[in-house]
Structure formats: structure tokens, C-alpha cells
Design brief:
This protein has about 350 residues and is α+β, with helices and mostly antiparallel strands. The protein contains 14 helices and ten strands. The strands form three sheets. A five-stranded antiparallel beta sheet has the order 1-2-3-5-4, sandwiched between helices. Strands 6-8-9 form a three-stranded antiparallel beta sheet. A two-stranded antiparallel sheet has the order 7-10. Bound molecules: adenosine-5'-diphosphate, 2-acetamido-2-deoxy-1-O-phosphono-alpha-D-glucopyranose and magnesium ion. The site of magnesium ion has 4 residues, from loops.
Length: about 350
């Protein structure tokens, strides 16, 4: 990957920022910096993940405007509760550097915390309520006006096909050493189709969804602990509410990091699952249909399986998509996801009864 740093000075100049700008956050995709003096986030959009950054920016402008208007109408503070795009000195909403990469800037939201694991149940509940409220805020968004910034992002059968392609190509000769993980994925082919089938049959409606609801994509108030702002809006696209529920469970309803090597430490925490489900549904304020609520456990199972499949495919492809800091990190990430899938399968009845007890839609 080309380093982002050499381009930072020209980016700062385009925004009229003095710097210095330091690497910031723990995202796996974009390159994020904080201009410390002015407290502004500057971020290079990953061209590898987003082949059309101008479409990412078009969605971002439209979605942040929509959110700001809804938040204002509800008596909230859009400068704190929604991402705001800072303009360049020449008025443009993004900057193209001399290498052709796209950068944007946001005021860094103050007096908030961003967590990498759910250190307490309260933190996870606050995240759940904030992501539920995000679904509510975007309820009625004209989904067909959004670009699909990453086509078929949560189309799990397609992700399985990408894994098959990686196995067949095996460009760095790793396939033979991960047969167990490959078998785990391939034997779940039928599961992979559940959400897309339900959408195709009209059982689950399309909404404007976030698609990447990791705990570290929501900022919580450092004093009250309440959710303040959902960030990382590059993948807001037409999708299913169960994606956003499921991806948050995948990442947060356990006590380990995504790349934990000791699998005996990795297990689904059913209490955290229940707590998140309750908080998420509270945040949505009853707008989800009965079918959406009943499919929430599938969201958790599929997003976890799919993420494991994606980590495995990237491992086979030579670690070209997700940022990695050490060898085998993507394989370790894959293994934690598959361990969580096994737990979800083992506790399936409990996952379902939890949303039945919690779900009071409409
Ligand atoms: P990535 O797509 O790489 O995950 P994010 O947009 O999530 O990038 O940003 C990475 C991290 O930077 C976030 O997890 C968060 O800690 C921090 N961050 C991003 N935007 C803001 C903001 N406007 N205010 C405060 N922190 C932010
Ligand atoms: C990436 O950008 P970040 O770090 O929030 C990825 C998600 C994965 C996640 C796994 C655009 O999220 O889909 O679930 O890593 N984002 C993209 O940690 O691919
Ligand atoms: Mg992020």
C-alpha cells in the first residue's frame, strides 16, 4: 500500500490547516489523521475498497444533510450528532491529492469516547440505542438515490463465491494450510442465502443502512456514556436492517478483540446479545416490521459468517484488502468469527427467543 503520509502536507494546505496531523483511530480501511491544532479529522478514502470515491462523497453529502435536518427537527444538535463535512479553502467538499487519491475532512467531535471492545454492558447498550436511532433517523430515506459504493457488500453468497475464487487462484499458496477454515465456510452455503432470499421474496424491506456497525463506528459521550454520533458513513447504502444489527453483534457481543489468537477466550456473550437487542429496538422506536425483528438472529449469524469468509479470502489473496499489522492477522480474525458463528449455532434457540421477548414492533 502506498503510504498516505507524503500527501498529508498538501491536504492540510488545501483545508487551510496547520498541522501537525497524526495517525488516528483503528479503522481497517481508510487512512485517518487528526490535525491536532485545529482538531480536524482528515481522511484518505481507500481506493482499493471504494473504486468510485466521488460516489462515496456524493452519498456522504446527501446523507449528512438528511441526518442534520432530521436531528434539527427533533431538537438535537447536528454539529455533534451527525458527521459534518468540512470544505476545502476553495469550497469543494473533498480534495484530490497529486497522486489522485480522495481526501475529506470532518470536525473532530469533542468530549466523546470510541471503544474497541464493549468494556461494560452499558457501553454496548448505548451503542445499540445509537445504531437503532440511526435506523430511525434514516427511515424513509429515498434509497434508490444512493450509490452502491461497494456493490453486493453484504450479499453473503457473493462473498462465498469470492472465497471460492480466492481458493481456486491461491495466489500466495496458502489454501492447503487452511483447509479446516475453508470447509467451515463451504459447508454453510445454504445459510449464506437466507437474508438475500428473504429480501428477494419481499419478506425484508430495503432501507438506508449503515453496513459497518462496529462499536468503534459510534462515538459515546465521555461523561454520560450515551451515544452521540454514528460515524464512518461510506457504506450507507440500500440494505437490510438485520445487517446493521448483526454486524454490531459480531463485533461487540464478546470479550475479545477481532484478531484474538487464543480461541478459548472467544465466545458469544448471550447477555450482551440480549442487552444490545433490547437497546437497538428501543432506538428504532418500533419502525421495524415483525419479520425484520424475527430475522435479527440471522443478521448476527450471517454477518459473522460473512466477515469470517471475507477475512479468509483476504488471507488467501495475500492480505490486500484489510489493513494488517502482523502476519496471519487476517487468519486469526477469520478464526474468531468462525468460533462466534459456532457459538451462535449452538445457542440458536436462545438467540431467537431473546428477540421474541424483546421485540415489540409497531
Ligand atoms: P475507517 O473507515 O478506516 O474505519 P473511520 O471513519 O471509522 O475510518 O475513522 C477511524 C476512527 O477515527 C474512528 O474509529 C474514530 O475513532 C475516529 N473518528 C473518525 N471520525 C471522527 C470524528 N468526526 N470525530 C471524532 N473521531 C472520529
Ligand atoms: C472494515 O472500515 P472499518 O474498519 O470500520 C470493513 C467492514 C468489516 C470490518 C471488520 C468498507 O470496517 O466491512 O466488517 O473492517 N469495512 C469495509 O473489522 O470493508
Ligand atoms: Mg470505522
Amino acid at each position: 500500500m502506498i503510504s498516505a503520509e507524503p500527501y498529508v502536507p498538501e491536504v492540510l494546505a488545501a483545508y487551510g490547516l496547520q498541522g501537525p496531523a497524526l495517525r488516528y483511530g483503528c479503522g481497517h480501511i481508510n487512512d485517518t489523521f487528526l490535525a491536532t491544532r485545529e482538531s480536524v479529522i482528515v481522511q484518505r478514502v481507500s481506493l482499493n475498497a471504494f473504486p468510485h470515491p466521488e460516489q462515496v462523497m456524493a452519498n456522504l453529502l446527501a446523507v449528512t444533510d438528511f441526518l442534520a435536518a432530521r436531528i434539527r427537527a427533533n431538537g438535537g444538535d447536528p454539529s455533534r450528532e451527525a458527521l459534518q463535512i468540512r470544505r476545502c479553502l476553495d469550497g469543494s467538499p473533498f480534495y484530490r491529492d497529486t497522486a489522485g487519491a480522495t481526501w475529506r475532512a470532518f470536525p473532530c467531535i469533542q468530549h466523546v469516547k470510541c471503544y474497541q471492545t464493549a468494556e461494560t454492558p452499558e457501553i454496548f447498550a448505548a451503542a445499540g440505542e445509537a445504531f437503532g436511532r440511526f435506523t430511525l433517523l434514516l427511515n424513509g430515506y429515498p434509497v434508490d438515490t444512493l450509490y452502491e459504493t461497494i456493490p453486493r457488500f453484504h450479499d453473503t453468497p457473493y462473498r462465498l463465491q469470492q472465497l471460492r475464487d480466492a481458493i481456486a487462484r491461491d495466489p500466495v499458496g496458502r489454501a492447503a494450510s487452511v483447509q479446516r477454515e475453508i470447509d467451515f465456510a463451504l459447508t454453510r452455503e445454504a445459510d449464506c442465502a437466507v437474508a438475500m432470499d428473504a429480501q428477494r421474496k419481499g419478506i425484508l424491506p430495503l432501507r438506508a443502512c449503515h453496513y459497518d456497525t462496529k462499536l468503534n463506528n459510534v462515538l459515546l459521550d465521555e461523561e454520560t456514556g450515551k451515544g452521540v454520533c454514528v460515524i464512518d458513513l461510506d457504506t450507507v447504502m440500500p440494505g437490510l436492517s438485520i445487517f446493521d444489527f448483526g454486524d454490531a453483534i459480531r463485533f461487540g457481543a464478546n470479550h475479545c478483540t477481532e484478531d484474538e489468537r487464543d480461541l478459548s477466550q472467544v465466545s458469544l456473550d448471550l447477555d450482551l446479545y440480549r442487552i444490545y437487542a433490547r437497546a437497538f429496538l428501543r432506538g428504532t422506536h418500533g419502525i421495524l416490521t415483525q419479520a425484520e425483528v424475527s430475522y435479527l438472529p440471522w443478521g448476527a449469524r450471517l454477518m459473522t459468517l460473512e466477515c469470517g469468509i471475507r477475512f479468509l479470502a483476504d488471507y488467501l489473496n495475500g492480505d490486500v484488502y484489510f489493513h494488517t499489522q502482523r502476519p496471519d492477522q487476517n487468519l486469526d480474525r477469520c478464526r474468531t468469527q468462525f468460533k462466534l458463528v459456532s457459538d451462535m449455532e449452538a445457542h440458536w434457540a436462545q438467540l431467537q427467543s431473546a428477540v421474541r421477548q424483546t421485540g415489540t414492533p409497531i
